[in-house]
Fold this sequence. Notes:
The chain has about 325 residues and is an alpha/beta fold. The chain has a single domain (about 5-320), classed as Vaccinia Virus protein VP39 (Rossmann fold), CATH 3.40.50. It has seven helices and ten strands. It has a seven-stranded mixed sheet, sandwiched between helices. Helix 1 (about 60-75) packs across helix 6, helix 4 packs across helix 6 and helix 4 crosses helix 7 (about 290-305). The structure holds S-adenosylmethionine (SAM).
Amino acid sequence: MSSQESEIEVDLSSDPEYASSYHTDTTSLSSSINEYVFENGRRYHSYFGVEKNLMPTDEKEQDRLDLHHEILIRLFDGRLHKAPLDHPQRILDVGTGTGIWAIDMADQYPMAEVVGMDLSPIQPKWVPPNCKFEVDDAEKDWAYKKDSFDFIHIRNLAQGISNWPKVLDDAYHCLQPGGYIELSDTGVTFHCDDGTMLPDNTAKCWGEAMTEAMAKAGRPPPSDARHLRDRLTAAGLVDVHSYAIKQPFGPWAKDKRLKEAGIMIWIMAEEGFTSYGLAAFTRMLGMDSEEAAKLCRDGYQATRERKSHLYTVHYVAYGRKPEE
Ligand SMILES: C[S@@+](CC[C@H](N)C(=O)[O-])C[C@H]1O[C@@H](n2cnc3c(N)ncnc32)[C@H](O)[C@@H]1O
């Protein structure tokens, strides 16, 4: 258990502010030329099939991903990973998104080659010389050689993967003995330790709808640290460690680091509720776009309620491939 799993102490002096506006465009159109689909005002990559990606890949989402990366660095005490790496040589980032983690890793380990792989080519062109990006589907057979990486990182991919045993089998095959796989994902359930989240809290309702939608999609989000730990153990990894890292929504935590992260999470959440929710609610739960947008808007507004001390959890687990 990590120390971050303990109860977050509330800063009683925090005062209400940070009101914001919210806008959702529900116009839909699609294009087969540029291999994107526009749905409920968001752009989804469709090269590997529309159903593949339940989250958008537009500029708003790219900004949100970069902000979440900065938040996670703070919540990881300034680190990019939990696994105890020793001079890694070849690193793979599966579902790299904007590639921000891969780029930071390439800077941190200049002697390593870092490969970022994603369904969508949304990564920048100007990157460190030891970093490169490839477009692929992690659920297809991996083209990488056996034992060719010593660290494989998979972060926030719950919405994109239906067959985790296959993905982790392929990752295990491509991992050197002694190398590490680190798996981390963000839960969609809202929690509260001090009774300030009422049963009809709309962020809680949003989380429940997300859980239902992702279960229907066959891509359930993690609900505890054991979830990811069990996946790694089942794939054959040993010395598996797991963590549950709380993500407070808003500046209600007394701890300075969590307070700062909480403000950043608020900013991220403004797009985050719709990034996660719009396609999931309309495609999986059959809501119309207005209803889905309202659930996202109401969920987000509940996190701005200064009296409610809400948080979600980012789950992390890493494990080592045994030496042969
Ligand atoms: C929520 S983002 C996370 C991005 C990045 N890992 C991060 O933490 O910043 C999910 C990313 O995974 C990609 N993705 C989803 N399913 C995938 C798959 N089957 N194979 C490869 N990439 C996938 C999406 O295109 C998107 O860029």
